[in-house]
């Protein structure tokens, strides 16, 4: 199948899924707010050869990035029924360059040799910036990138993340503004400039309840 055909079928399956995977039932809305939003501001060189998607849900944005740029991704989420559905769907559509794992990001460090393993990490609609940086930075190589998708309210979150960025060894490299059907969207591109201390990420739930500050 052509890329666009795979994307179309994936979206159709997502919006008609028996479980609530995405907040859209209209194909055109889902096409723009899920697929286009996932790829619009991302460049191939941002991702490297292997990336991590934290809080992927039904495979967003990881599946679309893997299909679009033909790279390998590990997609994780703590809700197993979402992961299982996305896994079955990838099998059905022949999407072979993603692995899906039901696990919390805090526990991934105990699952395999993933510390500073990935060229990049992405996350969309998961939590505040400081929290998501703690859940992604430990798994990204020095020199790699972390891409966070945000709406207009990112500014306050960013100002509250200064200490976390320094502690985790990341810095804001670029802010990319774009629009999806008239709605302002932002892709925050961070670069990892130093190894992340071994104690991160902290135990399950702690990064959310007590962000680094």
CATH architecture annotation name: 3-Layer(aba) Sandwich
CATH fold-level label: Rossmann fold
Helix content: 25-40%
Distance between the termini: 48 Å
Morphology call: globular
Overview in brief:
36% of the residues lie in helices and 26% in strands. It is an alpha/beta fold and 213 residues long.
Description of the molecule:
There is one protein chain. With 213 residues, this protein is of the alpha/beta class. The protein has one domain: 3-Layer(aba) Sandwich (Rossmann fold). It is 36% helix and 26% strand. It has a seven-stranded mixed beta sheet with strand order 3-2-1-4-5-7-6, sandwiched between helices. The longest helix is centred in the middle third of the chain and has 14 residues, at 80-93. The radius of gyration is 16 Å and the shape is globular. The mean pLDDT is 94.
List the keywords.
Rossmann fold; 7 strands; globular; 9 helices; 213 residues; seven-stranded mixed sheet; alpha/beta
């Amino acid at each position: 199948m052509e890329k666009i055909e795979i994307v179309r079928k994936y979206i159709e399956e997502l919006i008609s899924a028996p479980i609530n995977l995405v907040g859209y039932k209209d194909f055109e809305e889902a096409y723009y707010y899920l697929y286009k939003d996932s790829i619009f501001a991302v460049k191939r060189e941002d991702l490297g050869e292997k990336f991590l998607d934290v809080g992927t849900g039904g495979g967003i944005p990881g599946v679309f990035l893997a299909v679009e740029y033909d790279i390998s991704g590990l997609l994780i989420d703590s809700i197993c029924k979402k992961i299982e559905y996305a896994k079955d769907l990838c099998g059905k559509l022949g999407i072979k360059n993603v692995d899906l794992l039901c696990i919390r990001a805090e526990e991934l460090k105990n699952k395999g040799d993933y510390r500073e393993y990935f060229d990049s990490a992405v996350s969309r609609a998961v939590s505040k910036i400081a929290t998501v940086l703690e859940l992604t930075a430990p798994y990204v190589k020095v020199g790699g990138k972390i891409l966070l998708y945000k709406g207009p309210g990112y500014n306050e979150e960013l100002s509250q993340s200064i200490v976390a960025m320094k502690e985790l060894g990341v810095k804001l490299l670029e802010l990319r503004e774009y629009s999806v059907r008239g709605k302002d969207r932002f892709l925050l591109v961070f670069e990892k400039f130093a190894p992340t201390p071994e104690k991160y990420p902290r135990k399950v739930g702690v990064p959310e309840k007590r962000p680094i500050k």
